[in-house]
Design a protein that fits this description.
By secondary structure, the protein is mainly beta. Helices cover 9% and strands 28% of the residues. Strands 3, 4, 5, 6, 7 and 8 form a six-stranded antiparallel β-sheet that branches.
Amino acid sequence: MSRSFATAFALLAVMAVSPGLAQPADFPIVAADGSAFPAGVRVKKAGELSVYTDAHGDVLYGMDMRTVLRWAPDPAKFCGDACKHDWKPLLAPASAPVNIRYPAGFDKAAADDTFVDPRKAPDWTVIQGVDGPQWVYKGWHLVFTRRDGNRASTALDGSDDRTWNTLKYIPAVPKIAAPAAVSTAFVAGAYAFTDRDGRVLFTGKCGDGCQWQPLAAPMASSGLGDWRVGLNGDEPEWTLKGRRVFVADGAEPQAVPPEGKILRP
């Protein structure tokens, strides 16, 4: 891997965003790809988010190999000695083929089809760890559980300068039949319809003097699936199953009025 590539990831590793909304603590959460979990791996609720656990209910943490790159030439072998005293690797079956490596192989990934490029990895791959074949999540997160203390706790999320992060689960993005103006986002524990700018769509009874903003529609559209074009006065707007569709205020793209109900796929 080139020095410039390593430097780029080291810089990324110190960038922070809102707590609780990232996977790991300073990188965006990526939705699951829908592939099967390793044997024993489950999902449980942890506040507004969900996290992966092992068969015993111990929370899975990812050691972010992008952050330990600052201290280890081969991050897959970083957790030894004192680290192993606190963290237990989530080992893959001994017979599982190792199909990802880090950092070696970036420049050879295109020519070597026996290893997955971490930048394009599926949810679960296997790397050669300190104690043998070990699970990796999303190409970057070497998977561990705590050896002692409250092993079901998420309290160590972001610890050791964002090296350790709970593996947060977001379901695969749903496929929708909707107008081009409509997308989806993960909001309050489930997917919601949004406009193209990420503002949540909602419905409800808009009484006299209502200031809610309808989702504008083209006059010539014939609709798509449950989506139809209606008229409120002279202005065309989208409806969903006969209900008017409104757009959250731009200043708070995920907030809807108390009388409103978020529209979900």
